[in-house]
Amino acid sequence: MLNNASPMEIKICGITNLEDAADACAYGADALGFIFYKKSQRYITPETAKHIIENISNTVVKVGVFVNHEITAVRDIYEFCGLDLIQLHGDESPEYCRQFPETIIIKAFSPSMDDDVSILKSYPVKAILIDAREPGLYGGTGKKSNWEMASKLKEMHPLILSGGLNPDNILEAIDTVSPNAVDVCSGVEVSPGDKDSEKMKSIVVKVHAVKRKSPVKIFTKS
Fold first, then answer.
1. Which fold is adopted by the domain 5-209?
2. Model's pTM, two decimal places?
């Protein structure tokens, strides 16, 4: 084991109910994601998210996921629910991101060409999240993201790897990309929004077994 090494961080996204949230916390997840995009199969109302957040450990980081929301709506939900971080999963511009403190923003991307890489340099964010995308869908597709591109992007910002990750491929993904953290959603579900307790436990154990020396901490409270 590396001296002064810390476990790699993991976020369980698409939480829709208190039972799954409590299980994820019990297994040691570093962060939970709540999706406020109404077209998502994992959409949660701010009221339900607030109830869950008030009834789980205060040590886990709560992340709100937004897709092309009005800036005022993001701010209102962030404050109402008591979120720690904001994940922008749509087509938000650098100017949009600048409306929030850089220390609380995660920006999701699905890069496909080298031209996409240069664009990311202008984003003032705490971290970027690489995910797979299909036309009309913003994440949650269960498809593998572009690991080769992800490896390039980590030179610009701290990197969260997402997209089709599950207990069977998580270690290969980490070994290939060496991200700062990972984000899982459909890979630990029975159905959209309904988590598989054993899969959550398995993937958290595997991720935390990976040690990084002096890693960047993404899932921390500002």
1. TIM Barrel (3.20.20)
2. 0.91
